Amino acid sequence: MRIGELAERAGTTTRTLRYYETLGLLPARRAGNGYRAYDEDDLRLLRQIQTLRDFGFGLEETRPFVECLRAGHPAGDSCPASLAVYRRKLAELDECIAHLNGVRQQVGAQLAEAERAMAALEATATAPGGPGPRCELGRHDPHDPHDPHDGDEARERRAG
User: Using 50, 70 and 90 to split pLDDT, how confident is the model at 144?
Assistant: First the structure.
């Protein structure tokens, strides 16, 4: 098959296929007429690359899987180099998950603290003689001519 058909069947672009060719991930075979020629094995290579890319693998990380397929293995992940990439990627993912869990705990703690502070402010604001709310967000000053919450009618009344 030609490059356009391979690109269509793989759901990618011819430009991507040429790029993979320059990286050595896709073979650069030419037919007698000079056109690039591909077969079902090349489509299988592309699908392996796409699956790994969807999982977050970099292009260079796909190389051992491609080489494993080219070596005749039925699956690109049945070679020692592919297994090593899987192990590295799992360690990387575990590290990311641990980091995100830490961030989540910090955000949760900040939220709890903010909710406690807001509850304390509300309790103070509702107590007789207590100060008004300190949060300015959403407050409206009807005497401020520059208040964006003030309507045109109120500004006209003050001006007129």
Answer: low
Tell me how far the alpha carbon of residue 150 is from its chain's centroid. Answer: 41
Cα–Cα dist 122/119, whole Å: 5
* CA–CA gap between residue 26 and residue 18 (Å, rounded): 8
User: What is the Cα–Cα distance from 62 to 67, expressed in whole angstroms?
Assistant: 9
**Residue 86 φ then ψ, to 5°:** -55, -45
SS3 label, residue 55: coil
Taking only the tens place, the pLDDT of each residue in 83-121 is: 999 999 999 999 999 999 999 999 999 999 999 999 988
Residue 41 in contact with residue 9, Cβ under 8 Å?
A: no
